[in-house]
Amino acid sequence: MIQPIRPFAILSTCLILTSCGNGVADKPANTNTVAGDTSMQEEATTPQQASEPAIPTIKIGEQEWMLADINATAYNNGDAIPEVTTEKQWTGYASKKEGCYRKLTNGAVLYNGFAMSDARGIVPAGFQIPTQDDFKQLIKFLGGGNSQSGKATKAMAGYTYKMEEWVDGKDGGGFTDVTIKGTGSNGFNAQEGGHIYDNGAANEGSCSYWWTSTKEGKDYAVVDIGYCSQDLGGGSGIYSAAYGFAVRAIKK
């Protein structure tokens, strides 16, 4: 679950297939030409065609995920997604129930729920916004964990994060921060992110949050890993479309 804002000081392999053919059809020689006549040669060409660049993915268990979070600046039909940089702008789009995105200083691109769920789409053809169960399946496959031990988080995160660990002491002990280096060993390649509150305030840090397509009323389920929530085994919560989170797509 999202905690109160902490003072973090932090926000293709493109396989291009081309096919072209240059065929030359020679007109048969005319043996009955007269002086001054010239045999004409007709050249047929096939226009060059190129497929869309292949989208890098990773197969984890029976699932196939994109290797990076979505960073689209336009919907699939070409309409621009408004970019905001202030809290006032963020809440303005939310009040109109319109989509927008914001780029954090650590590079994470976060969308409000209106952009994530817009019928024009922000994920490429052949992909979809994952359900909450899709993430549960992923985290379970990677060993799961809990709020104090996250095997899945360590395998997913390509960054260093912290957790609170109880340490016994003379006065009964207490919690202390422990730094853990994510291995990113499964190739999911989660990067440092954060989230945006419904009031437009941003929280950046060593954590990752993703929208899901799973709805509860007018709100959506969100999955998170890392220090911002302490849900190191993979946490989840229900949030309104006025919040901002990253989007990671899964193959249909």
Characterization of the model:
- The protein has 252 residues and is mainly β.
- It has one domain.
- It is built from four helices and 18 strands.
- Strands 5-6-17 form a three-stranded antiparallel beta sheet. Strands 14-15-16 form a three-stranded antiparallel beta sheet, with helices on one face. A two-stranded antiparallel sheet has the order 1-2.
- The protein is globular.
- The chain starts with 17 loop residues before the first strand and ends with a strand.
- The relative contact order is 0.21.
Total beta-strand segments: 18
The CA-CA distance between the termini, in Å, is: 28 Å
Structural category is mainly beta
Number of domains: 1
Largest sheet, order of strands side by side?
Answer: 5-6-17
* Rg of Cα set: 26 Å
Order of helices and strands: EEEEHEEHEHEEHEEEEEEEEE
How is this fold's topology laid out?
Blueprint: E1 18-25, E2 42-50, E3 57-60, E4 63-66, H1 87-95, E5 101-103, E6 109-112, H2 113-116, E7 127-128, H3 132-141, E8 145-146, E9 149-150, H4 151-156, E10 160-167, E11 174-181, E12 193-196, E13 202-205, E14 207-216, E15 219-226, E16 235-239, E17 244-245, E18 250-251
Antiparallel strand pairs: 1-2, 3-4, 5-6, 6-17, 7-18, 8-9, 10-11, 12-13, 14-15, 15-16
